[in-house]
Amino acid sequence: MAGAAAGAAQLPLIFMSVSAVLLDIGVSGDQTLGRRAAKLLRPKARGRINGQFFLRRRDRLAACRHCLAWSGCNAVCGAGAAFGFIALAADLTAGPE
Questions:
Q1: Structural domain spans, the chain
Q2: CB-based contacts of 64: which residues, under 8 Å, 6+ apart?
Q3: What is the pLDDT of residue 74?
Q4: 1-10, 47-56, 59-68: which is most confident
């Protein structure tokens, strides 16, 4: 009986570990696909595109740092969700290429 209780107590840790690995895979994949898309746009404008890519990343990190100082982890999650919705809205309003 004690063994079952110990196994049940470790279940959240297992779920959290699997979630962390899946999150890492997702973030790495997103970065890889984003960089690939930026490099495929226009080869002659690659320097400017790379600069814009890193400037947007810097702006997101700065916003998240301010949110963390202002209101903690909930504000950082809210800022991340807001950036996601802004990107989705920009993609939907851009139309077909």
A1: 1-41, 45-97
A2: 76, 79, 80
A3: 84
A4: 59-68
Please classify residue 88 by burial: count the beta carbons closer than 10 Å to its beta carbon, then call 0-12 exposed, 13-18 middle and 19+ buried: exposed
- Judge contact between 10 and 22, C-beta under 8 A: no
* pLDDT one-digit tens code per residue, 12-42: 888 889 998 988 888 888 777 777 776 677 7
Q: What is the DSSP letter of 44?
A: G
Q: Report the C-alpha gap between 64 and 80 in whole angstroms.
A: 8
Closest CA to 68 of 81, 82, 79: 79
Q: What is the pLDDT of residue 3?
A: 58
Cα separation of 53 and 47, whole Å? 10
